[in-house]
UniProtKB/TrEMBL annotation:
Keywords: Hydrolase. It comes from Dactylosporangium vinaceum. It is an enzyme of class 3 (hydrolase). Pfam families: Beta-lactamase (PF00144). This is Serine hydrolase domain-containing protein. Gene3D superfamilies: DD-peptidase/beta-lactamase superfamily.
Length: 404
């Protein structure tokens, strides 16, 4: 299914000429070789105001980006997993303060890294257990192996967890391995990007009594009509965009070593980064949230999820541990599955306070602005997402196109 414009820009409070600046600006990224291609969708009040595609979804095969191109969402999977968890929360299946060891006993006696090296780490017992809200807010102490910023992520890599998981390991085994590794910090005492949402996926399947992908399919994807959103595609699927990485000279190189993972059904479906989708499908997910749950979740649940849940109500820059994340830290809080704008001034990038968002490792990004009733999503396939300032530039250009 493709995505089409539903309302004229002027009727939705946009200047059409200023929206055209977006296309011209990001076209330069393709014309000079930094990106292969991209897709952009902007909607207000749930109606698409601007949709554009540019460049190639597969440059080597000379295949253009089209409205129904498939994109690896990577960490834009996390909000979907978080919504899945909150569906169970609304049913009273758990409380956010419950220790996750109630369902995942391997996390009962966690150790926290204190000092030492990857060859000789010294740990101390966790003061309190990892709780469900710690997973949703990335305050659990779990990390990522690919960060290369701490002894703990080096231990993840030694255990076989870098950009992916151990071959053949299912979600239960993956979580047992994570539980055997030390935490980066005491639960609730810091903020660190990591495998928390993957563990949340395992928690969902144990609580629900069905496989995690099945729960996501029946409780989110099917009700929203997200028919193109999957955990893998066939090797001959022509709609899937190729994955690229930057070169030192400002160009790009095809990254099939990682990109081809999309062609195999995962043994451990990653709640933190496993889905493939289209702009039209993800638009349905964003519109549901903009409409305060639209029957999938209660309005007050969405409002609760998109508040700042960090301890003390502080910004991420007060709690972050120095690793990579799909967001800036200044003026930003974190809710239950989303970064939340508290004050746009410290980051020097305009956004409405209360806006919530996230992005993916291949430079995809979305945000939802409930005050301006705005959803924006940008899709491309360049990893890592920190290569170019696509996201702040996107915000700068979108908000400057609003006229009302």
């Amino acid at each position: 299914m493709s995505i089409d414009r539903e309302v004229a820009p002027e009727q939705a409070g946009f200047d059409a000429g200023r929206l055209a600046r977006l296309d011209a600006h990001f076209a330069r990224y393709v014309d000079d070789g930094r990106l292969a291609g991209w897709q952009l969708a902007i909607a207000r009040d749930g109606r698409v105001v601007h949709h554009s595609v540019y460049g190639k979804r597969d440059a080597e095969a000379d295949l253009p980006v089209e409205p129904d191109t498939l994109w690896r969402l990577y960490s834009m999977t996390k909000p979907i997993t978080s919504v899945a968890a909150m569906i169970l929360w609304e049913e009273g299946r758990f409380e956010l303060t419950d220790p996750i060891s109630t369902w995942l006993p391997e996390f009962r006696d966690m150790q926290v890294f204190e000092k030492g090296s990857a060859n000789a780490p010294f740990t101390v017992p966790a003061i309190e257990p990892i709780r469900v809200w710690h997973l949703l807010t990335h305050t659990s102490g779990l990390t990522y192996g690919f960060l290369h910023t701490s002894v703990v992520d080096a231990l993840y890599r030694k255990a076989g967890y870098d950009l992916g998981v151990k071959p053949g390991a299912d979600l239960a085994e993956v979580c047992r391995d994570f539980a055997a590794l030390p935490l980066l910090f005491q639960p609730g005492r810091g903020w660190g990007y990591g495998v928390s949402t993957d563990v949340l996926g395992r928690l969902i399947e144990v609580v629900a009594g069905v496989a995690f992908p099945e729960f996501v399919r029946t409780r989110i994807l099917e009700p929203l009509g997200m028919t193109d959103t999957t955990w893998s595609v066939a090797p001959d699927e022509q709609r899937l965009a190729a994955l690229y990485a930057p070169t030192p000279t400002g160009g790009r190189v095809r990254f099939d070593a990682l990109g081809k993972a999309a062609f195999a059904e995962p043994a451990a479906p990653a709640g933190g980064g496993g889905l493939i989708s289209t702009a039209a499908d993800y638009q349905k997910f964003m519109t549901m949230l903009l409409r305060r749950g639209d029957g999938l979740l209660a309005p007050r649940t969405v409002a609760f999820m998109t508040r700042n849940h960090l301890p003390g109500g502080v910004d991420l820059d007060r709690l972050q541990t120095g690793g990579f994340a799909e967001t800036s830290f200044e003026g930003i809080g974190f809710g239950l599955g989303f970064a939340v704008v508290r004050d746009p001034a410290p980051s020097r990038v305009y956004s409405t306070p209360g806006t919530y968002y996230w992005g993916g490792a291949a430079s995809t990004a979305f945000w939802i602005d409930p005050v301006e009733r705005l959803t924006v999503a940008f899709y491309t396939q360049l990893i890592p997402s920190s290569t170019y300032p696509l996201r702040p530039q996107l915000r700068q250009l979108v908000y400057s196109a609003l006229t009302d």
